[in-house]
Automatic annotation (TrEMBL), chain A:
It comes from the Bacteria. Signal peptide: none annotated. It is found in: Cell inner membrane. The chain crosses the membrane at residues 21-41, 47-68, 100-123, 129-154, 161-184, 196-218. Belongs to the CcmB/CycW/HelB family. It is a multi-pass membrane protein. GO terms for molecular function: heme transmembrane transporter activity. Required for the export of heme to the periplasm for the biogenesis of c-type cytochromes. It comes from Chelatococcus composti. This is Heme exporter protein B. Pfam families: CcmB.
TrEMBL record, chain B:
The chain crosses the membrane at residues 23-45, 65-86, 98-117, 129-148, 160-183, 203-224. It comes from Chelatococcus composti. Belongs to the CcmC/CycZ/HelC family. GO terms for biological process: cytochrome complex assembly. It is found in: Cell inner membrane; Membrane. Signal peptide: none annotated. It comes from the Bacteria. Its main location: membrane. Required for the export of heme to the periplasm for the biogenesis of c-type cytochromes. GO terms for cellular component: plasma membrane. This is Heme exporter protein C.
């Protein structure tokens, strides 16, 4: 079971790294969003540093959506989904493997680069650290909630926009607690630990629900 | 288990259609009468509020609409369980018929809330916890309807939507909790000021009548929606059969329509 899990994670990572994969795309899109927003809001650094954590989090949500519509779709197109469904390994484990691989290629790089992008928004070091920490524990929730939508729209062929419509309402709690934990580190309206722990809990719940629901959706869709 | 067998009897669409045709006129008439009584009570009998004046009458539409927006989601989740666990054909139909009705009630709730908010709070929209969670509920309805419209095969669409509905029902309490938390964080001064802990009986009675009227109306609409959906599916399978026969050039076989 562990071998199948690792094999699928490695396969998805390789696919993401090669031509046609969406490896660095999420990160570039993330940078794009952060760079374009000041053009809309104006170059006022005070304003940008105040809304910076929220901006980074919102960009992370959108950047996560980028790769998600291809999460299961490519497997449906090239037939790999039949092997995954027919495998002895429980489907839930394999779905989790795909989710982990997606997180490693989008969520983790976003969290690691967030401090760097925070420089563009004039964040304080403390705020940078807080945003990176919250993204690190919060993005798994985004990935696994999105996996449900990806599994539901996998066989549609045109699931991109539908996916966003389906999963964005479900991402509201993650966004709320992610942003408030990131803000709490700078403006002390509320303790950092409370929203941070709730965010961790949301991620854990999303991993469980997302894995099982996405597996159920793939079984129903096949 | 007599209840379960009677539910399985209804899996036969013809039997269900017979029942629906018998029930529907009565339910529709009951809904009309209750609505008439409820509207009369709320517009002419209930006293205007001592603070809010006549605008308080919006409540008699607003509150039952909110309650039914949630009620239809619960109905949809129960049907989703029926689809996934028992593969009950009627559950698919019930699920599909419930979504637009629930969305409509939620929308009525949002619109009347907005109309009520303008004279009371001086603005059409506030990012208050309750408003926001109802808005998210409305967005989820829209997502479910969008998924229904995206999958061609009704049976596959039903199973996909069932998964989404059940994920939604797990998430609704989480969303409600987090939005409450978010709103207290952003707005320490509560906008929502219900005057006094209880409603006076002179207002409670019209509200209860309206709630029952809306519920009967929703059930009647749901039943009619289910009937239409079954008929629509029959038309669909007849068309498919016809197309297949044209394709194969075979004589039509009688009465195999679903």
């Amino acid at each position: 079971m562990t071998r199948a899990f690792l094999a699928l994670v490695l396969r998805d990572l390789r696919l993401a790294a090669r031509v046609g994969g969406s490896g660095a795309m999420g990160l570039v899109f993330f940078l794009m969003l952060v760079a374009v927003v000041p053009f809309a809001l104006g170059p006022d650094l005070n304003l940008l540093s105040r809304i910076g954590p929220a901006l980074l989090w919102f960009s992370a949500v959108l950047a996560t959506l980028i790769g998600l519509d291809r999460l299961f779709q490519t497997d449906v197109e090239d037939g790999a989904i039949d092997l995954i469904l027919a495998s002895d390994t429980p489907l839930e484990v394999l779905v989790a493997a795909k989710g982990v691989a997606h997180w490693l290629t989008t969520g983790l790089p976003l969290a690691l680069c967030a401090p760097l992008f925070g420089l563009l928004l004039a964040l304080t070091p403390q705020a940078m650290l807080a945003v990176a920490a919250t993204l690190l524990v919060g993005t798994p929730a985004l990935t696994f909630i999105g996996a449900v939508g990806a599994a539901l729209t996998a066989s549609l062929g045109r699931g991109g926009l539908l996916l966003a419509i389906l999963v964005m309402p479900l991402m509201v709690p993650t966004l709320i607690f992610g942003v408030s934990a990131a803000n709490a580190a700078t403006a002390a309206t509320v303790g950092f630990l409370t929203p941070f722990l709730v965010l961790v809990a949301l991620s854990l719940v999303a991993i469980v629900i997302g894995t099982f629901a996405a597996a159920a959706a793939l079984r129903q869709g096949a | 288990m007599p209840r379960l067998t009677s539910l399985w009897n209804l899996a036969n669409p013809t039997r269900f259609l017979g029942l629906a045709d018998r029930l529907l006129p009565w339910l529709a008439a009951l809904a009309a009468v209750l609505l008439a009584v409820g509207l009369y009570l709320s517009f002419f009998v209930a006293p205007p509020d001592y603070q809010q004046g006549e605008t308080v009458r919006i409540m008699f539409v607003h509150v039952p609409a909110a309650w039914l927006g949630l009620f239809m989601y619960v109905m949809m989740s129960a049907s989703a369980l029926g689809t996934l666990v028992w593969r009950h054909p009627l559950a698919d139909v019930a699920q599909k018929a419930a979504a637009p009705i629930g969305a409509a009630f939620t929308f009525v709730c949002l619109v009347t809330g907005s109309l009520w908010g303008k004279p009371m709070w001086g603005t059409w929209w506030v990012w208050d916890a309750r408003l926001t969670s109802v808005l998210v509920l409305f967005l989820m309805y829209l997502g479910i309807i969008a998924l229904w419209r995206a999958v061609d095969d009704p049976a596959r669409a039903a199973r996909a939507v069932a998964v989404l509905t059940l994920v939604g029902v797990v998430n609704i309490p989480i969303i409600k909790f987090s939005v409450d938390w978010w709103s207290t964080l952003h707005q320490p001064a509560a906008v929502f000021r219900i005057d006094g802990p209880t409603i006076h009986p002179s207002m409670l009675w019209p509200l209860l009548v309206m709630a029952v009227a809306f519920t009967v109306l929703a059930i009647a609409l749901h039943l009619a929606g289910m009937r239409n959906e079954i008929l629509r599916r029959r038309v669909r399978s007849l068309r498919l059969m016809e197309a297949e026969q044209l394709d194969a050039g075979v004589e039509p076989a009688a009465g195999a329509a679903r």
